[in-house]
Design brief:
Rossmann fold, two-stranded antiparallel ribbon, 2 domains, globular, 16% strand, Arc Repressor Mutant, subunit A, 7-stranded mixed β-sheet, alpha/beta, single chain
């Protein structure tokens, strides 16, 4: 007899698991509808209204009432919005708006909810990748660059001068005097544009594999006459050095590269002797057991599976994934030659770790 068949079936455990799956289905639905509420500005409009009917909310937001009413059904039954049947009015509590509106940044979780729709759009592609083991490419993901830029906008750009740069003693003063700064895997390039505007005496360069990622920011920078900011598209796996920079940054960019170890070696070779490399990356562990208690782990592993891992494989890379772990990041930095490595956490960013590396 099969050993499994001798184990008594636990009805309570089965029922609890079924309940868990119902919660997962409702959570997925809420995440998608939260993304929709963000993209249509419903949360921002709603937060400014003490209470409203579906018609009033729709008119204020410039949307079709029938769709707004159905969306409100999701929000009410999910416990996001309060409903008064007698007057058929809806209320978005201020305590909920604090995590759903643009003014709530960096706590606006509606921004992050957009990733669910982005990765769901390539489900068919990933079914095929499970079977053939091949990878994907950045252009497969539609709005990925747009959503990533908005997410980084509230976690990185908005926190740069007050929280991130002060991790390095004296760095703000150096930037004020004038230094050379490089951002590898710059994506939309908004971090570099923010710094170029804040520190006009310094010179900033953003490099990314995909020119379309920073195209819009490049146009904006030209319109603002930011002569101290340049962008270029380049495959960083093809060069040994990029010059010498006093500060090199990488924001959530290293783990999904074609050659993460090679990129860190390139950074080491491109860093001035007294310079610093500031790297933000996912702050999980490479040890699955350690990640069980991390409340963000299901989301991070999903993003890793649906984007980070296949994008790396699609470039011919190792597919380290987002959960390559702070342990691996520290090891890779040491292998690249960095003698001083410090790992930091910031209160505003519970997902990522910040690494300061010097020669």
């Amino acid at each position: 007899m099969n050993e499994q068949s001798t184990i008594a079936f636990d009805d309570a455990k089965a029922e609890a698991f079924a309940t868990h799956l119902v919660g997962a289905l409702n959570g997925a639905a809420l995440a998608l509808m939260t993304s929709l509420g963000h993209r249509t500005n419903l949360f921002d409009v709603f937060a400014a209204m003490p209470n409203a009917t579906s018609q009033e909310l729709a008119e204020k937001a410039g949307l079709a009432e029938r769709y707004v009413r159905e969306w409100l059904g999701v929000m009410v039954t999910s416990g996001v919005v309060e409903y008064t049947p007698q007057t058929k009015t809806y209320t978005l509590p201020a305590e909920h708006a604090a995590f759903l509106t643009r003014s709530a940044s960096p706590d606006n979780m509606a921004v992050t909810c957009q990733f669910i729709g982005v990765i769901a759009s390539i489900e068919e592609e990933m079914v095929a990748r499970f079977r053939d083991g091949a990878g994907t490419h950045y252009h497969d993901y539609g709005r990925f660059h747009e959503v990533m830029a908005e997410d980084s906008g509230q976690l990185v750009v908005a926190a740069l001068t007050d929280h991130i740069l002060p991790l390095v003693p004296g760095l703000v003063e150096q930037l004020e005097r004038g230094v050379d700064v490089l951002d590898v895997g710059c994506g939309a390039g908004r971090a570099m544009m923010h710094l170029a505007m804040t520190f006009p005496a310094s010179r900033f360069t953003g490099i990314d594999l995909c020119e379309d990622a920073f195209a819009e920011t490049q146009i904006t920078a030209a319109r603002l006459n930011l002569s101290n900011l340049t962008f270029r598209a380049q495959d960083l796996s093809q060069v040994a050095s990029l010059g010498k920079f006093n500060l090199i940054t990488a924001f959530d960019a290293v783990h999904d590269q074609k050659d993460p170890q090679g990129l860190l070696s390139l950074v080491f070779n491109s860093l001035a002797q007294d310079g610093v490399f500031l790297m933000q990356d996912i702050g999980g562990s490479r040890d699955l057991a350690t990640n069980i208690d991390n409340p963000f782990s299901p989301l991070l592993y999903t993003l890793s599976l649906m984007h980070c891992t296949p994008v790396s494989i699609g470039q011919g890379g190792p597919g380290l994934g987002a959960m390559w772990g702070i342990e691996t990041a520290q090891e890779f930095l040491a292998i690249a030659g960095f003698g001083q490595i410090e790992t930091c956490r910031l209160p505003h960013d519970p997902i990522n770790a910040y690494f300061l590396a010097r020669h």
